[in-house]
Amino acid sequence: MAENKQTKLHEIVVPTSPLPVWYFIFNTDTGVPKYVAPHWHRGIELSYTLDGRITDFMIAGKHFDTQMGQILVVNTQVIHSVDSTIKKGNKTLSIIFPFDYVANLYPEINHQEIDINYPEKLNNDQKLAYSNLQGLLTQFYWLASSTQPLKNLKMQQIVDEVLLLLLERFTKEKPPESEMGQRKVYVINRLQFITQYVNNHYQEKLTLDSIAKKCNVSMEYLSRFFKKQMEITVDTYINNVRAQRAYFELKNTSHNLTQIAMNNGFSGVRTMNRAFDKLYGKTASQIKRNFKN
């Protein structure tokens, strides 16, 4: 089910059978929400804005406002999120290459990263490769929604060509941890732990105190640290993750609002409605009515 596929995105990347990668088509027809809470995974993620824009795609604390034709890559274990205004006609493609799949074909990726997110810095060879990638990803987008019998073979071929271009033209050596500085490594590791913990335990009772104890720090320190690094409070982050998961359950099941609230860690429908209103500008009750119409 779509709900399960979305849940897995934040834990283990499950390929979209029969391909070796996970992919998803985002457009105004799929009803995908405008918000994806900060998270990370080992897989290498590619985002392609075919039409429209993503107004705020955050990767490792850097904010991107994508335009039509723009490609973004999220390297392995990098925290990222999306908070975007959805407009009619928006079309975006996401592909996640499982890290082990890439590393088995190209072991050098263990000490390299893909550097493609700033098109203005590309050399002439890279600009040509970038143009080729745009064409391939556009083909993939339209093939994904087609019914032609050979579509999976064609999509597999495109996946291989895209990966080859990324690795051949856009890789660079990762900076050693000594250059990153101990403080930056500490920040990355701590944020990865917190976001993964919330994504894995959002159905349970989560508090600032319980997460602080898991991190062996005080509540005051955790509150300041998280707000500074993520630009939102821990409580807001927890509610956003729950609301995001509840949104997909709302869209993809016939469960009533009370069931959905309980399944996603909310104390009740009223609490869930408040979280939805802050995140989506509509309560869960209003969104449920919209899906029915």
UniProtKB/TrEMBL annotation:
This is AraC family transcriptional regulator. Keywords: DNA-binding, Transcription, Transcription regulation. Gene3D superfamilies: Homeodomain-like, Jelly Rolls. InterPro entries: AraC-bd, Homeodomain-like_sf, HTH-like, HTH_AraC, RmlC-like_jellyroll. It comes from the Bacteria. GO terms for molecular function: DNA binding. It comes from Lactobacillus amylovorus subsp. animalium. Residues 192-290 form the HTH araC/xylS-type domain.
